[in-house]
Design brief:
Residues 31-202 form the Outer membrane protein beta-barrel domain. By secondary structure, the chain is mostly beta strands. It has a single domain (39-231), classed as Porin (Beta Barrel), CATH 2.40.160.20. The chain is 9% helix and 52% strand. Strands 1, 2, 3, 4, 5, 6, 7, 8, 9 and 10 form a 10-stranded antiparallel sheet that branches. A hairpin with a 4-residue loop joins strand 8 and strand 9 (188-198). The longest helix is centred in the first third of the chain and has 18 residues, at 2-19. The protein starts with a helix and ends with a strand.
Length: 232
């Protein structure tokens, strides 16, 4: 996670220094960009997803999560509320992969479960911006989302005893983030960093209530970090 924040900081620094956005009297680009009632755009980015586990009993052996980087892509529809507030709908596609390490097993085939997920996300957000300063404008954003996990395997008849880790298809949660709008000569470029937190339990437990994989899990929820690059 530290690497993500470092990369984001270096990106912001590169953008600001290379385009001289912070000059005292810059030439203002796209002066009417934020005055339209409706705006459209798209975003690209990457993510790092994790799991948060709640256990029924504290046995001193947690499930390990090996995280990796995934990617995000989506569209943006924005409705202007006033000078400082906008409502945004950001439907998108997200891919991520995680490896789970379960304690107490002697073989890798039993101990490791690879969880590949493809989510179709539907976030509804509020974006709160400061007053524009030259060709840049900081903002914070937050809201709720619903998503469908196409790789959930929720309806599979197999479970971990057959090597199949199952999750629920529908997920609900919220996200919070911040970023900066940069007004270039031809478009508005907005890098942002988001924290994503599921509210619903995503685990489909094994058929055996005493399963060594899921028997001690009370709830499992996704959490993650996004870095998005928006073009409007």
């Amino acid at each position: 996670m530290k690497n993500i924040f470092l990369l984001f900081g270096m990106l912001i620094l590169a953008c600001t220094t290379s385009s001289a956005q912070f000059r005292e009297d810059p030439i203002l680009n796209l002066q009417n960009e934020d005055k339209n009632f409706l705006n459209w755009g798209y975003y690209l980015g990457f993510n790092q997803y994790d799991f948060q586990f709640e256990y029924k009993n504290d046995i001193g052996r947690d499930i390990l999560v090996e995280k990796s980087f995934g990617f995000n892509v989506g569209l943006i529809g924005e409705m202007r509320i006033n000078e400082f507030l906008d409502a945004r709908f950001e439907p998108g596609l997200l891919y991520t992969s995680r490896n789970l390490g379960f304690p107490g097993f002697t073989t890798q085939a039993d101990a490791i479960r690879e969880v590949r997920s493809t989510y179709i996300r539907f976030p509804l957000l509020i974006k709160a911006s400061t007053r524009r300063i030259g060709n840049w404008k900081p903002f914070i954003t937050g809201g709720v989302y619903t998503s469908m996990n196409l790789g959930s395997k929720e309806d599979s008849l197999d479970d971990n005893s057959s090597g199949e880790f199952r999750m629920k298809k529908n997920v609900y949660g919220y996200e919070l983030g911040f970023g900066i709008d940069f007004y270039t000569e031809y478009f508005k470029f907005s890098p942002s960093i988001r924290g994503v937190f599921a509210l619903t339990d995503e685990l489909v437990p094994d058929e055996d209530p005493n399963s060594p994989w899921t028997g001690n899990i009370n709830a499992m929820r996704t959490r993650g970090i996004f870095i998005n690059f928006t073009f409007e």
